[in-house]
Amino acid sequence: MAGGFVETGEENKQYNGRLTIFVALSCIIAAFGGVLFGYDIGVSGGVTSMPPFLTKFFPDVFRRMKEDKNISNYCKFDDQRLTLFTSSLYIAGLVACWVASWVTRVYGRKCSILIGGASFVIGTVLGAAAQNLAMLLIGRALLGVGIGFTNQSVPLYLSEMAPAKYRGGINNCFQLSTNLGVLFASLINFGSQKIFGTYSWRGSLGIAAFPALIFTIGSIFLPDTPNSLIQRGKDINDAKMVLQKVRGTVDVQEELDDLIKASSASKTTSKSYFKILERRYRPQLVMAIAIPFFQQVTGINVVAFYAPLLFITIGLKTSAALLSSAVISGIATIFTIISMHIVDKFGRRKLFILGGIQMFISQMIIGGVMANKFGDHTALMTKSYAYFVLVFICVYVCGYSWSWGPLAWLVPSEIFPLEIRSAGQTIVVSVGMFFTIIIAQALLTMLCHLKAGIFFFFGGWVFVMTVFVYFFLPETNGIPIEKMVKVWREHWFWKRFVGDVEIEDGEELGTP
Fold this sequence. Notes:
The chain is mainly α. It has 23 helices and no strands.
């Protein structure tokens, strides 16, 4: 099969150690960053459907929704200030992740996680107490800073702490916790919208302060990863003690030696952003751009950001729309758990491809039904067709949740050699943030102009990215991060970039 990888000896070497409780607890605390990320994604779609929130900050949108009979059903929520409430989160996150890259490299993964947690706490309090649009957006921007720092550091932290054979499942904890955050937000939105007045949306925005505090306080007690300690020139014995604790064995010398070699290779240059442009790192650079881009054009943000608005558009009441959003979030969580259990057994490529096929078919069906049963100015879609659309949105979310949702975080976090790892992760997060901003800001306008065609638009991209994975993404399952260069040298296409690189300084390039 194109893009496959034949596993042989050295590249498939496994180090001593097991999955310890110490690793599990550390990763649970770190993955709380995903809970906050997911909550801030999920809460925005809910509060923007609440009348008290709209009347305070976006009265024109509320008037169109209730009174304007001439505007298209698809255009009632098309307002750039409303979309700015969502996209401001990612504009700030895009800027913050570049600062976070430097902090992560110089001061360690733990420091970045801690800064992200503090930003979440301050941003949550400010947003819940907002008295005007400016104050609301500043709070969202601070939450974006938290997202920029945690999205840059948490996936790296999880990948570096996890034993290679458990890395897929542990790293998927980030996506699982993100889905739990979205589910938590959906349930809170459903409950708080019944509260009178501004307490409805203030409650939804403010309750995130509790997990933010847990995350921030817990981060203080996190150990930094052995990779980071060695990279920052700390005492090798300190790194060895941490490695022994996280692996549950004193026999860690082989893995420690490889980490030291990887660190030595990484110090040959201080300009990792230039180094990643070298020919030998072409596969990693392409994946650092392509994977987060494709994740954003799956169309998941139609559901993640604006599900309640979409459901209101097709005819559901506010309460039913928020409940439907909570059901979808629950389904996403279940299938992310399924992904955690099968990703290290079946591998990354199969899940990417099968999930892509499932998403493509679902989007074609949804687009077809909406094109035929829901017009510009006609009566809202009948309940039976509205729930039919809801069912296939659930099928679509299932496909995303066990494939492109978790794997788009997992695969980039495990493919970079140490010398370009921080730069590579920053590119991944930046590309993801950049296209999230574009889609978040343009989505309601796209819905207004493309109408049902928006599902065909995103479905076309799902087809393209599934073909891309089939031909160009090698299998990375079970390969130690320090030996990942082997998968590119065995690949039918990428070997032309990394297979003919000369040996420098007596060392095989790309291999610690």
